[in-house]
Amino acid sequence: MKSRKFEFKPFSRKQKKLIYWWHPESPVSDRKIVIADGAIRSGKTIAMICGFFLWSLNSFRNGAAFILAGKTVGALKKNVIKPTLEILTAWGVPYHYVSSGDEARIEVGGNVYYLYDAHNERSQDRLQGLTAAGALLDEVALMPRSFVEQAMGRCSVAGSRLWFNCNPEKPSHFVKTDLIDQAESKKVYHLHFMMEDNLSLDPEIRAWYETAFTGVFYRRFILGEWALTDGLVYPDYANHPQTYEITQIPAIQHAVIGVDFGGTGSAHSFTLTGFTPGYEKTVILSEYYHCNKDGKALSPLELEEAFVAFVRQAKQQFRVYEAYCDSAEQTLIQGLRLAVAKAGLGINVRNAIKEPINERIVFTNSMFAQGRLLVHSSCKQTAKALREAVYDSKIRTEDVRLDDGTTNIDSLDSFEYSVEALMKDIFYLRR
Ligand SMILES: Nc1ncnc2c1ncn2[C@@H]1O[C@H](COP(=O)(O)OP(=O)(O)OP(=O)(O)O)[C@@H](O)[C@H]1O
Ligand SMILES: [Mg+2]
User: Fold this and answer.
1) Closest residue to atom 16 of ligand 1, CA basis
2) For residue range 236-262, what is the model confidence (pLDDT) as tens digits?
């Protein structure tokens, strides 16, 4: 299958630096690693792909191996592979793309670019034994340190170079402390990107992005700073919960249920979330919450009864066709499926998608920042969960939402399961 051609717009000065830093005439060609960090949509990935392929095709031929990695297979394909094939097509450079399997790769001019996802501690295993001439790690700050170090170790061919890009995370993240802050000794060339470094970005879209984030996410995604979270996971909400509370429900187009199952020390939580036409607003409409602590655990039958009652009530008021449930509990899910079928309630009971928690957090915060997420006054547990959620202060290097039984994570999970499938559509509505 042939790719369409990438439609190039003029590159900014910053993008040109990232494309050509390796060139013998460049003053920084002695560096071994380039790190492009900074704002979202600032043109880091596109310029990095162009530079990486220009460099690798100019410097190596016949059989050299390269690493192309992203956080997940999906992210790699969308952010790196798709534009890469479009760019190669626009350049008129032939390629052969093997899209799946352990040997997924792009072959170009005798070079082989192997594809990797780096989502957990085992991801680095696939790199072992490889001798590479270079690596492009997209969104490097989301990858496990073990993977990044393994990739660095694999690039042992003379003249090899490493190409990393990311949005900033915590200031104590290893990419910041061990690479960017030690740029001279580690031979790192650091380029900081802002949205104005992407000349192709529509000013209106750029202005919209600026309003879409507040607090730490504004500092990280818009200003491109390695900024510290302030402890609270949802500070806008926690500081002004009444701003987001409603008693009158607006016209709802349709609604979705999220289900989190509790163990002995936690709670069963159902959330009904509604969407106004065109996803303009997302509304947490109602909740069911049962804490299993203190010997009050529900039997599977009682859980099914509670779910049937919740679905019935929801369907009396809104169009509800789907429930997304914690996929760790397949037996309970099967029970709910049978129970709603027996009760004659037409609803599709599915597995939750379980996007990375930090992506769900960015979504929820951005929705609050835009005034597009509302909580009905009856949802007391959800409101409390949103107010009280904090980051785990014991984990220094990453942002991890505290989940040790002292705060209500169950209501957050069930809410998130109810919106995950639509998260991207809702978020990018104004793009
Ligand atoms: N020179 C260019 N010509 C055409 N389109 C471009 C150019 N530079 C960037 N873009 C487009 O701008 C958008 C953002 O660019 P890119 O994905 O490289 O940004 P990024 O900094 O990697 O963003 P993120 O941090 O969100 O991953 C993309 O749609 C990309 O195709
Ligand atoms: Mg990118």
Assistant:
1) 43
2) 999 999 999 999 999 999 999 999 999
Ligand 2 centroid – CA 412 distance (Å) = 28
Which whole number is the average pLDDT over 184-207?
A: 96
| 42 pocket-lining for ligand 1 (C-beta < 6 Å) | yes
Q: How would residue 1 be classed by pLDDT, with cut points 50, 70 and 90?
A: low
**266 and 317, same domain (yes or no):** yes
160 and 248 share one domain: no
343 lines ligand 1 (CB under 6 A): no
pTM of the entire predicted model: 0.91
Same domain, yes or no: 265 and 132: no
How many independent structural domains does the chain possess? 2
Closest C-alpha to ligand 1, atom 15: 43
Ligand 1 neighbour 200 (Cβ under 6 A): yes
Domain span at 131: 13-200
Is the Cβ atom of 5 under 6 angstroms away from ligand 1? Answer: no
Q: Are residues 263 and 312 in the same domain?
A: yes
Q: 151, 183, 200 — which closes off a domain? A: 200
Q: Where are the beta strands (DSSP E) in 21-169?
A: 33-38, 65-70, 96-98, 105-108, 111-117, 134-138, 161-166
Q: Are 139 and 70 contacting, i.e. CB atoms less than 8 angstroms apart?
A: yes
CB of 43 sitting under 6 A from ligand 1: yes
322 and 180, same structural domain? Answer: no
Q: Please indicate, yes or no, if residue 100 is contained in any of the structural domains.
A: yes
Q: Which of 326, 306, 322, 321 is nearest to 260 (CA)?
A: 326
Determine which of 34-43, 292-301, 313-322 has the lowest per-residue pLDDT on average. 292-301
Asked whether residue 312 is assigned to any structural domain, the reply reads yes
Q: How far is CA 329 from CA 290, 325, 336, in A?
A: 17, 8, 11
CA angle 118, 119, 122 (to 5 degrees): 80
Amino acid 2: pLDDT: 74
- Going by C-alpha positions, the residue among 263, 214, 268 that lies closest to residue 237 is 214
At residue 33, φ and ψ (nearest 5 deg) are -125, 135
CATH value at residue 248: 3.30.420.280
The Cα diameter of the chain in Å comes to 74
Collapse the DSSP code of 141 into the 3-class scheme (helix H, G, I; strand E, B; otherwise coil) and give the result: helix
> In testing the pocket of ligand 1, which one of 140, 198, 220 has its CB within 8 Å of the most ligand atoms?
198
